[in-house]
Design goal:
154 residues; Multidrug-efflux Transporter Regulator, Chain: A, Domain 2; 3 domains; two-stranded antiparallel sheet; 7 helices; 2 strands
């Protein structure tokens, strides 16, 4: 099948197919006498595999690792399991970061009701104040400055 047919059947663009092929995620297609690429069902199956992985949030590097494993072996299963466990740990870390962010935004939200006759917004006032000793947002900028000073700002 030609690239346009494969794109329609797989739900990805022809450009994406070429990209995956160039990255080695999709095996190279055979070339016909007219130099057109000729894709088969194995290409369609691989594109569905890639799409499933992407929907699970896997990176192209992860997908490349998954597609590089040799035939079914105990080592292959162990490596696939380790990759999934690593991905789960990354997701747990992101969830923790998002929960922290949510909490900080909720704190900000409580500083303003949204309707003020005086025009003062508690959210903007909080965002505009600067206290480097207690600013959670700026902690990582202060770390090099604090080294050798007992870990506390002056």
């Amino acid at each position: 099948m030609r690239i346009g047919d494969l794109a329609r059947r797989s739900g990805v663009t022809a450009e994406t197919i070429r990209f995956y092929e160039a990255r080695g995620l999709l095996p190279a297609a055979q070339r016909l006498a007219n130099n057109y690429r000729d894709y088969g069902e194995e290409h369609l199956a691989r594109l569905h595999f890639i799409r499933h992985c992407r929907l699970l949030g896997m990176t192209l590097e992860d997908i490349g690792e998954l597609t590089s494993f040799e035939a079914d072996t105990p080592e292959r299963c162990a490596r696939v399991h380790a990759l999934i466990e690593r991905h789960l740990a990354e997701i747990d870390s992101r969830i923790a970061q998002l929960e922290n962010l949510r909490g900080r935004l909720q704190e900000l939200s409580h500083r303003c009701t949204g309707a003020h006759s005086d025009g003062l917004c508690g959210i903007l006032q909080t965002l505009e104040q600067y206290d480097h000793s207690s600013c959670v947002c700026c902690e990582h900028f202060l770390e090099p400055e604090l080294e050798g000073k007992g870990g506390k700002p002056d």
